[in-house]
Sequence to fold (361 residues):
Amino acid sequence: MTPREIASFCETRLSPPAVPTPLAGDASTRCYYRLTRKGHAAGDGTLGVLMDLGHPFDPAQEPFFRSRDLLAALGLPVPRLHQLFPAEGLAVIEDLGDSLLQRCVEECPEDQLPGLYERPLDHLMVLHVEGTAALEGLPEHPASRETLDRDRFSFELDFTLVHYVMGLCRAELAPGDLALVREGFQTLAAEAAGHGRVLCHRDYHSRNLMRRGAEQVIIDFQDARWGPVTYDIASLLRDSYVHLPEAFVDETLERFRTRLEERILASAERLGGGLEHLVGILADPPAFRHRFDLTCLQRNLKALGTFGYQTTVRQSKVYLPYIPRTVAHARRNLARLPGYSGLLEVLEGCGALPTRGRCPD
Fold:
């Protein structure tokens, strides 16, 4: 809907009538508006947030609502639903304010980081163990029909080549270098995809976790799907939006590995044997770290593709400040993976991964 249509809808269809204020969006096509009671100041509290999905929907089929219901059934904190208007493609959901985990991390002392990430780690345990068991029994669920597999990762890395390397960076690659990049991306897609399948949020980072009292509420879950066990933890710890010290990343990754292994073993009898294939992966710390680094590399290169597309095609400058940190993550992980030294050399040489993009440790 146009802003004028949204305003008319809020005045004539909502009870009580509300005034919509646009909220800053993300990389999706959905639009959001904070709803204030008509005749009241914006600071007097809100009636919720109006989400415009951009198309009519069936709540029983729409991924946002199906995934929200799945996470809620697992006991995970998600926004409350107030009103649905399927024919108009609109929904009124809980207003969680503006307290992103991103902002909390930016404002807190370094020694308080473990406390900020305790609940997000707890939620990943539930998502990957109980959530995986639940999704196994829901073959028609939207999350069950999508997988972060080799084909998906290949598509995302091709997108990065087009919209970041050759788009935003305007790199002109010689035929041999282009072939090397394509080959390296295909190898990475295959290696990153083979890491043990679990239910993944798919965008589990500091801009998609919001404070509600002492809780960290999960948002932007509509793309939940099967994916590698290292995927969500890679999103959380190699986050483009916040700086996390390397020592904290190492300690938190090890905590995640040991706690997930313990939870799977403790839950095997109750949930069945569907997660037994993960035990061998989690029981080998060096191998798990290698898998984590591969997933981080794919995830950060994918993010650069998104940032490039948003900048060059959608003419949005919102993501430009986050490119240097993401470049630093990608460079760091390429340096850790000897088999990708040629890919690092080419991406450095064409300006896609400049050394000036390194962020402080």
Notes: The longest helix spans residues 285-312. The chain has a mean pLDDT of 93.
